[in-house]
């Protein structure tokens, strides 16, 4: 592998690890907001417990995931300075807006939501989680604006050897963006729904306490996955329109891109059929059908896999271009990089991100295993403390 391939592989591996966190954040945020809305409207303790339990899982994933994003930004400066020189004036703006949004707005609203339990007025507290969801979606929008610009550099012209933005409207209505954004948001909802579904199936299979809690969660997870699958598949096929227009040979030119696309569609179609014809009827009429629960647990990671394959298809299919038709990946690489440098940073980044992913999984698995009684988010009432102490001692 030469230095260019090493740098590309590093970006692909770190990007994939980062996206595992992102896709779950995008899916869980609206689900927690919906649970909280039901709690605010009905005042029922069951809805409050559900919000706090799944909310804690959301918070764990967000806290670890935000760190993984830093590594991505860092790599632009380290390995791809040619991109900054040539297209930084256009590409840098949406990335900067996204970083400011994710770091400042989203985490501020999330902080208010976490510490606002039993302190903020009911509707203001609810507004915080909806603002978290909104800012997460706005972040996704700006990242997809930046990525779509690489797929089709709309709204910019070359002046003095680099790209300058001439049409902001064209940048944010790029046809490579308009179908891809809902596809990604749908994939997020699908993934979030599957995590809620798989974790609920675990408890129902083990016949732990809280059967009502997890039956309700299982239903919500499957319904979310169903809605997510409709959006994902619909906009997935719609993406072929702009792709055939701007990158007609995308999936024929590179075998890996075609393969990634082929498998993503296969997973998507099989899972969608399963959701529509088996899961939806089962969770409504036979939610305690025990033999189905291990299957639900086993298929939980599949939307994550499909999402990574989707990114592989989108990015590998664009080769050899970094900015399609304008700047090649080879020209974008920072001068003076050596194999040794990239190998060192590769090992470091993948080590850190891999560790974060494992810790994320373990913390989420532990939270799921302990169940709603052990949740700490929003648990500062005396009744909660007793319940929690009991659960932790088990
Ligand atoms: C089942 C039918 C599906 C179809 C027809 C479809 C179609 C596509 C196409 C054409 C692309 C590449 C677009 C480009 O290169 O610009 C893509 C990318 C992608 N897909 Fe899918 N897909 C499907 C299922 C899924 C599923 C199940 C997931 C995840 C749950 C997923 C997640 C992604 C992601 C994250 C990308 C990269 C971003 C994007 O281009 O939107 N896809 N998909």
UniProtKB/TrEMBL annotation:
<keyword id="KW-0472">Membrane</keyword>
<comment type="similarity">
    <text>Belongs to the cytochrome ubiquinol oxidase subunit 1 family.</text>
</comment>
<keyword id="KW-0813">Transport</keyword>
<keyword id="KW-0249">Electron transport</keyword>
<dbReference type="GO" id="GO:0019646">
    <property type="term" value="P:aerobic electron transport chain"/>
</dbReference>
<keyword id="KW-0408">Iron</keyword>
<dbReference type="GO" id="GO:0005886">
    <property type="term" value="C:plasma membrane"/>
</dbReference>
<dbReference type="GO" id="GO:0070069">
    <property type="term" value="C:cytochrome complex"/>
</dbReference>
<feature type="transmembrane region" description="Helical">
    <location>
        <begin position="184"/>
        <end position="205"/>
    </location>
</feature>
<dbReference type="GO" id="GO:0020037">
    <property type="term" value="F:heme binding"/>
</dbReference>
<dbReference type="GO" id="GO:0046872">
    <property type="term" value="F:metal ion binding"/>
</dbReference>
<feature type="transmembrane region" description="Helical">
    <location>
        <begin position="123"/>
        <end position="145"/>
    </location>
</feature>
<keyword id="KW-0349">Heme</keyword>
<dbReference type="GO" id="GO:0016682">
    <property type="term" value="F:oxidoreductase activity, acting on diphenols and related substances as donors, oxygen as acceptor"/>
</dbReference>
<feature type="transmembrane region" description="Helical">
    <location>
        <begin position="217"/>
        <end position="238"/>
    </location>
</feature>
<keyword id="KW-1133">Transmembrane helix</keyword>
<dbReference type="GO" id="GO:0009055">
    <property type="term" value="F:electron transfer activity"/>
</dbReference>
<keyword id="KW-0812">Transmembrane</keyword>
<feature type="transmembrane region" description="Helical">
    <location>
        <begin position="295"/>
        <end position="313"/>
    </location>
</feature>
<feature type="transmembrane region" description="Helical">
    <location>
        <begin position="53"/>
        <end position="72"/>
    </location>
</feature>
<feature type="transmembrane region" description="Helical">
    <location>
        <begin position="341"/>
        <end position="363"/>
    </location>
</feature>
<feature type="transmembrane region" description="Helical">
    <location>
        <begin position="12"/>
        <end position="33"/>
    </location>
</feature>
<keyword id="KW-0479">Metal-binding</keyword>
<dbReference type="Pfam" id="PF01654">
    <property type="entry name" value="Cyt_bd_oxida_I"/>
</dbReference>
<feature type="transmembrane region" description="Helical">
    <location>
        <begin position="92"/>
        <end position="116"/>
    </location>
</feature>
<dbReference type="InterPro" id="IPR002585">
    <property type="entry name" value="Cyt-d_ubiquinol_oxidase_su_1"/>
</dbReference>
<keyword id="KW-1003">Cell membrane</keyword>
<protein>
    <submittedName>
        <fullName>Cytochrome ubiquinol oxidase subunit I</fullName>
    </submittedName>
</protein>
<feature type="transmembrane region" description="Helical">
    <location>
        <begin position="258"/>
        <end position="283"/>
    </location>
</feature>
